[in-house]
Amino acid sequence: MVDAVSGSTIAGRQQNSRNTLASSQETFLALLTTQLKNQDPLAPVDSTQFVTQTVQMVGVEQQLMTNDLLTALVGMNDGGLNESASLLGKTVIAENATQKIGDDGKATWSYDLAGDAKYTKLEIVNSAGNIVKTIEPEGAAANKKGSHSYTWDGVLSVADDGTKTYAKKGAAYTIRVKATSATGGAVETSTDLTGVATSVAIEGGQSVLTINGLKIPLSSVIGVTNPKPPADDDATT
After folding, report:
1. First-to-final CA distance of the chain
2. Which residues contact 4 (CB under 8 A, 6 or more apart)?
């Protein structure tokens, strides 16, 4: 699989360059202003030097803009866009801890434990970073090494009279998995997102898929399966 991380890495380097450039521009303007204020009126600094330095600064900024275009082309020409397009309509598994509340009012997460755990805790967090629900799976099976899943019914709170408040359809929530081994050490965990890829785009120089309404980088995809064929109603038994 073509890895779209290359585009992301380039974009990160460009962002660092922009930050450095912005800092340099502020420093340049501060020095220029100070120099103008303190120059000898009888022997002013050659204005040609100012123009030359300004042109150089603008040239660097224009080069970064050119790099933006090149990064986008890299994302399209390295196979990223074509490969992403081939995933449309297929069931994709990607490393991601965020899910959206579905039409049924529920959200399901898949997660893996790298080893057996003595204690596992799941925390569901809203977009504001607040924990809305904490789950502590019980039983040996829930803490065994391997793949697990949890389906949340979307209930945010229950009033004294039994009235329930539900999460809104389409709202995004993130799950945090914390597992501890029998010796007290942390057990490595990972969380996966499973859904049908519905669109593809190039953003920030990398290919991005839309899965369950969420934008997922191609580099996060760890598995792909073909959708199940529709049942043949005319088939004889």
Report:
1. 40
2. 75, 78, 80, 206, 207, 217, 218, 219
Rounded Cα distance between 73 and 95, Å, is 25
Tokens of 75: 């994302």
Q: How confident is the model at residue 237 (pLDDT cuts 50, 70, 90)?
A: very low
Radius of gyration of the chain (CA): 27
Q: What is the pLDDT of residues 194-232, one digit of tens each?
A: 888 898 888 877 788 888 888 888 888 888 887 766 665
| CB-CB contact of 113 with 144 (8 Å) | yes
Query: Which H or E run contains 45?
Result: none
Give the 3-state secondary structure of residue 106: coil
Domain that holds residue 45: 5-78
**Could you tell me if residue 151 is inside a domain?**
yes
| CA–CA separation, 23 and 15 (whole Å) | 12
Q: How many domains is the chain partitioned into structurally?
A: 2
| 68-127 per-position pLDDT tens digit | 655 555 544 445 566 677 888 888 888 888 989 988 999 999 899 999 999 999 999 999
What letters, b where the CB count within 10 A reaches 16 and e where it falls short, cover 204-232?
Answer: bbbbbbbbbebebbbbbbeeeeeeeeeee
